[in-house]
């Protein structure tokens, strides 16, 4: 496994792989790698001949007051994870490599970024799409792999790739959960044991939603009220939003019909946690 600290090096390594006929898979990350990232690497290794993973804590996707400074950066452990999982190149750029002193060009996906997390993290998705566009231009992969836990991010990135005719496929891999249902996330490490326990209510509320839909409830408000009751069982949980939206347009729905995304964002202690499920009622 090679570690590339410059754009020039990662480009030349990818070029060499490509000239020997290899397909290139790409896993963009901010490091602090966990089993969710490992599942993305595994999918990439399975589907592609050559796998590049980037580790870059992207400053432009953190809004003021968020955890940019204290975001975990365990680079040695991350490199070991990559080596073991079969990554070919880890791209670890500096901020100076990724952003000129004054970055004047930004990628902004409209509408899809106004809802859900976009309402609470203004500018976040502009940072995500800009850095992903840069990374896709640098790495030039055939396929890039993202996790379903960041549901809105996957919808926004797919739209950017389609609208800007970027020549790559986006693969979305299932959310990886602990045995107790908590979705794995780099930010779980900010939680105390009690807060981790409380956080299991997030997935419980989503499961309750699934159960209600499966037993015939379609009224979104009724479901949201029930989910809110579950999350309110623990005073440590501050609900940011519970939304039931169309899985493609991300528009709020009154009824659960068709392909539907049910998304939750909460704050527990120092951590902001998100989770979601996709439902498909099969009819519109
Ligand atoms: O999902 C993440 O870790 C980040 O948003 C990403 C895609 C690596 C962009 O910085």
Task: Give a written overview of the molecule.
The protein has 284 residues and is of the alpha/beta class. The protein folds into two domains: 2-173, HUPs (Rossmann fold); 186-278, Pantoate-beta-alanine ligase, C-terminal domain (Pantoate--beta-alanine Ligase, Chain: A,domain 2, 2-Layer Sandwich), CATH 3.30.1300.10. Helix content is 38%, strand content 20%. The chain is built from nine helices and nine strands. The chain has helices at 7-19, 35-47, 75-85, 95-98, 117-120, 124-139, 151-163, 193-214, 220-231, and strands at 2-4, 24-29, 50-55, 89-91, 143-147, 169-173, 237-246, 259-268, 271-280. The strands form two sheets. The protein has a six-stranded parallel beta sheet with strand order 1-4-3-2-5-6, with helices on both faces. A three-stranded antiparallel beta sheet has the order 7-8-9, with helices on one face. The protein is globular and about 55 Å long. The protein starts with a strand and ends with a strand. The mean pLDDT is 97. The site of pantoate has 10 residues, from strand 2 and helix 6.
